[in-house]
Write a structure and sequence with these properties.
The chain has 248 residues and is an alpha+beta fold. It is 62% helix and 16% strand. It contains nine helices and ten strands. The protein has helices at residues 10-26, 32-45, 60-89, 96-99, 102-129, 145-161, 167-179, 200-216, 222-235; strands spanning 4-6, 47-49, 52-53, 55-56, 131-134, 137-141, 182-186, 189-196, 237-241, 244-245. The strands form two sheets. It has a seven-stranded antiparallel β-sheet with strand order 4-5-6-7-8-9-10. The protein has a three-stranded antiparallel β-sheet with strand order 1-2-3. Strand 9 and strand 10 form a beta hairpin. Helix 6 runs antiparallel to helix 7. The protein is globular and about 65 Å long. Residues 244-248 have low confidence and may be disordered.
Length: 248
């Protein structure tokens, strides 16, 4: 009968967000992995199971590697290919006529291509983030690269088809998918698995509502949004042992 709880506060998140965003802008994105590490560590250390706190073990060095190989390089390759296609196709981005026909098609194709190129990075980023310790147990992913990327691809496709309306459902289903593949290891042996039973209707409305509040307030509301969204995902999670369910 142990329940998950999130004890983080919006005030603490403001102290992480303000300098994190400022340093990310000043360093042209170079600080982003450190910002992400600090944020994930905070959320982990303020997530409890039966008064026991989680400890995040992911390293900033590995995250920098994933950002460079999985995000920066693909974007550079994408940008170079985009410029080359523009030059050799004769499409002018400054021409209204071109933009209303071939230019729009070209931009759409390259936008989809960029999403596809970033799917491995999304997977690796998720995998990096799920690396916790709870007392003497380790919490890691038990996933395969290709099926996981295939699942993310399917969710992205639905988001694109619905012109972005589906994106909260994408996040919730992706979290549920990977939560069920998150295992607790005790001395290297699987002891139990995670799961997620948060209601889709509540999460869909929550994510859209919090996002719109962030947009309206030009990002000022972000710390409160993160706290509420984290609370939704964490309190909806559970751990299932082989003997039975130990959390709601």
């Amino acid at each position: 009968n142990k329940a998950f709880a999130f004890t983080g506060t919006s005030g603490d998140l403001i102290k992480i967000f303000l300098p994190g965003i400022l340093l990310t802008v000043i360093t042209l994105g170079f600080y982003l992995p450190r910002f992400e590490k600090r944020l994930v560590s905070y959320i982990a250390e303020h997530s409890e199971l039966g008064n026991e706190r989680f400890h995040f073990q992911g390293s900033t060095k590995k995250l920098y590697k994933y950002y460079i190989l999985g995000c920066v390089l693909p974007i550079i390759v994408w940008f170079v290919c985009f410029i080359l296609v523009i030059l050799f196709s004769g499409v002018s981005l400054e021409s209204t006529t071109d933009l209303s026909s071939a230019g729009i098609v070209l931009l759409s194709v390259f936008t989809v291509a960029l999403f596809l190129m970033l799917i491995p990075f999304i997977y690796l980023n998720y995998k990096w983030a799920i690396n916790f310790k709870l007392k003497e147990s380790e919490i890691i992913w038990k996933t395969d690269f290709c099926p996981s990327c295939g699942f993310i691809l399917g969710q992205f496709a639905l988001t694109i088809i619905t012109l972005g309306i589906y994106w909260p459902a994408m996040l919730i289903k992706t979290y549920r998918y990977f939560a069920e593949k998150t295992v607790v290891l005790d001395n290297g042996k699987e002891k139990s698995r995670f799961g997620f039973e948060g209601k889709m209707s509540r999460g869909f409305g929550l994510l859209w509502g919090q996002t719109l509040l962030c947009v309206v307030t030009l990002g000022i509301y972000s710390p409160w949004a993160v706290a509420k969204i984290a609370n939704y995902f964490i309190t909806g999670s559970f751990i299932e042992e082989k003997q039975g369910l130990i959390t709601e």
